[in-house]
């Protein structure tokens, strides 16, 4: 596999231990606020070829198991593996079924044999991985020749309204950073996998107020995890400043929150 080391986003990505802990804490609240995550995962499933056969599949970053169960319906005779770095998510998902095995593991170092899966599916998980070259390398390693790696991730432009509003209040890091779409293009092109499709698409959600948005991010476990984020409680004056700045983006439907979603379907060469 070609080694192409693109720089991480400025200031780096979150420490994976913090990511695991945050999503573990959010396991019981996640599904109640995960409308975007369900829509994105469903779209990623639709992008799989209708004639795709998978005797063994991996849901990588399986979370509460929503798409583990969807994959089990799509491939009812297959052996399914659900893997997540957050043990709290796995504890939540196991009783709900869908997979043959639930595995605590890291997408950058998969605890699976070479050439062992027909499909690696990952919806809104790999944006938390600092070393995406390793993610691609591991997916390539565990896939059988002709196997598919389908992922959805987030890129720069995600939550730009929230980021710009905070920028008017102070210069601290309040919003998670994500890679440029061009970074995904370069890394996928150099991965040794054949790129069947790679696109970005904007999903816009609307909220009645800023508190509704920030509450949802916390319930998802996706609130600010970046190095350089402010510590302690946010003062009332800064919150009021944020609310005033965000109001400039208000639309008839409410306050918009834009997610720039990357959809990719890659194939391991025969």
What's a quick, concise take on this entry?
The protein is α/β, with parallel strands linked by helices. 34% of the residues lie in helices and 23% in strands.
CATH architecture label name of one domain: 3-Layer(aba) Sandwich
- Determine the fraction of residues in helical runs and give it as a percent range: 25-40%
Mean pLDDT: 86
CATH evolutionary superfamily of one domain = Vaccinia Virus protein VP39
**Which descriptor suits the 3D outline?**
globular
Count of distinct strands: 7
How many distinct helices?
10
User: How is the biggest beta sheet arranged?
Assistant: 7 strands, mixed
Portion in beta strands: 15-25%
Structure characterization notes:
- The chain contains ten helices and seven strands.
- It has helices spanning 16-25, 27-30, 35-46, 66-74, 87-93, 132-142, 160-167, 181-189, 210-220, 236-246; strands at 56-60, 79-84, 101-104, 117-123, 143-154, 194-207, 255-267.
- The protein has a seven-stranded mixed beta sheet, with helices on both faces.
- Mean pLDDT is 86; it is low at 1-13 and 223-233.
